[in-house]
Each structure stands twice: as structure tokens, then as C-alpha cells.
Amino acid sequence: IVFFGSARFEEDSEYYQKAKDLAFKLTKWNMKNYKEEYRYVITSGAGPGIMEAANRGAHDAGGKSIGLGISLPFEQTNNKWITKGLNFVYHYFFMRKFWFIYKTKGIVVWPGGFGTLDELFDVLTLLQCKKITRKIPIILFSNKFWNGLIDWDKMIDNKTISRSDLKLFVTLDSVDDAFAYLIKNMQK
To answer: Does 95 have pLDDT greater than 70?
Structure first.
């Protein structure tokens, strides 16, 4: 289960806490329901902020988490909450993106900047163009952030996307709603 989001949120941020809580809850659910294997493993971009919160939530729940980092000249190293042996650093963005999407069963996109939007639009494009044919539940977390950020209706009016493309994701505000949506849709 991939968590995308800003590296800039500190531990006291509402989004950091909610990402940590959702990762914790998903990890506990996974460990209870899939004892023989780790079917659903929290995966992040390995950095600070939302990425750290996701790995930390899984760690605090006693589960595994994956970090898919990228070597950048101005970023910290991968966060300390990633499971040993599951901490990777990529040089090329395209290889990192491939591994984010290749095995994902669900994606939660938290508020973020250019990198987060890039990751979101990459996966939406692959789904829209049927390069990925399996159903991947995608949550944009926080109506407060996402509403108005992208003018979907303007894109529809200009015929750059179809109204049906909006079914590729949902926007939710609570950890409980996000958890329920993922559990229901990942198992299909």
C-alpha cells in the first residue's frame, strides 16, 4: 500500500499524524488477516514527512514497511522507520516509480507538492490509458487540500479528460473512511 505525500510535514502536523495512524491500522489489519505472509506492506518514498509517518506507523504496529528512496543532493537519507532489508535508494525516478506501481494494491495520496502530483498523475495516466488493467483503489486524502487544487471540471469541459476518469480515485477525510475504502477495494 503506497503512501505519497509531502516531505515537509513535521511530526506535529495533522497529516503526519493521520498518515501514521492509517499505516498503523492497515498494518495491524494485515498482520491479523495474513499471518503466513505480508500481503499488504506499507511503502513510502522513504523520506521525511508523510513518508516517515507511513513507515513509522507500520513500525509502531509491529509490521514491515518498505522505503523506496531517491538520491537527491538536498534531501536527507531514508528515514529510520523502514524495515531493515527493505530500504532501497534509486538514482532514476522512473525505476523508483516502476516499483511503486508494479505491485501496489492501494495508494493514498496525501497533500504534497510537485513530486506528489507527479506520482499521482503518473499512476492516473497509466490507469486511464489501460497500461495498468487491474483495479487500484486511490485515495486523495483531505478535501480541504484537494478541492479546488485541480479544476477537474475545467478539464472535462475542455475534453482533456472524461467524467468517467474521475472514478479512478476518491477523496476522503478520515483515517477510518480511508481504511474502510482500502480494505473493501483492495480485496476485489
So the answer is: yes
pTM of full prediction above 0.85: yes
CB atoms within 10 A of CB 14: 11
Evaluate whether 40 touches 63 at the Cβ level (below 8 Å): no
- Are 59 and 65 within 8 A, CB to CB? yes
CA-closest candidate to residue 99, choices 119, 84, 129, 72: 119
CA distances from 181 to 55, 117, 158, 172 (A): 20, 21, 31, 9
Percent of the chain at pLDDT exceeding 70: 97
What is the C-alpha separation between 116 and 133, in angstroms, rounded? 22
Cα–Cα distance measured from residue 123 to residue 63, given in angstroms and rounded to the nearest whole number: 26
Degrees to nearest 5, angle at CA 23 with 113 and 49: 35
The mean of the pLDDT values for the chain is 95
Instruction: Map grid coordinates 508523510 to a residue.
Output: 50
